Amino acid sequence: MNIQRHAGFYVVGIAARTQNSVERNGKGKIGEIWHNLLRDNLASKIPNKTGINLTALYTDYEGGLDGHYTYLLGLPVSSILNVPANFVAKYIPGGRYSIVTSERGPIKRIVPETWGRICSMPVVELGGIRSFRADYEIYDQRAADPEKAQIEVHVGLR
């Protein structure tokens, strides 16, 4: 297990409310968010970017694992001034995060597999109790090929 403590930061992108049961049954919103962001090159319209690695944020949880949450796909930023219309800014709070690295493979397979593994991990293996304040995925150069991708999931801990 890899536990890190980091300062908080903002992410700007496009977002929607969803929940895991809806995402699993194929009627979710996450795929549409990815499609829109990539098709329309929306990341290029985000001001004050601090990097090029896409960040997928899960936040505003209602009811933990089975409740609704906000999913935001975007980029970390140095400032939330001048956020364009139709974009959302969310804060990833500082604190302790367990870093879980996926296997390599197609993104459509490795993301749900990694989350399934996280959700079934005993507290000792995860490194603590989940906070359900914010979790996020990092899509860096290891995810450049969507068929041979690898991602990091940062799981917020209490």
**Count of folded domains:** 1
CATH topology category name: Multidrug-efflux Transporter 1 Regulator Bmrr, Chain A
CATH class: Alpha Beta
**Strand-pairing-aware structural class:** alpha+beta
Query: If you average the pLDDT, what whole number results?
Result: 95
CATH architectural label:
Alpha-Beta Barrel
What is the N-to-C succession of helices and strands?
EEHHEEEEHHEE
End-to-end distance: 16 Å
Major beta sheet summary: 8 strands, antiparallel
Large-scale geometry? globular
Name the features:
158 residues, alpha+beta, Multidrug-efflux Transporter 1 Regulator Bmrr, Chain A, eight-stranded antiparallel beta sheet
Produce a short descriptive summary:
The protein has 158 residues and is an alpha+beta fold. 21% of the residues lie in helices and 38% in strands.
Could you characterize what this model shows?
Pfam families: Cass2. It comes from Tunturiibacter gelidiferens. This is Transcriptional regulator YdeE. The chain is an alpha+beta fold. It has a single domain, classed as Regulatory factor, effector binding domain (Multidrug-efflux Transporter 1 Regulator Bmrr, Chain A), CATH 3.20.80.10. It contains four helices and eight strands, in the order E-E-H-H-E-E-E-E-H-H-E-E. Strands 1-6-8-7-3-4-2-5 form an eight-stranded antiparallel beta sheet. The chain is globular and about 40 Å long. 26% of the residues are buried.
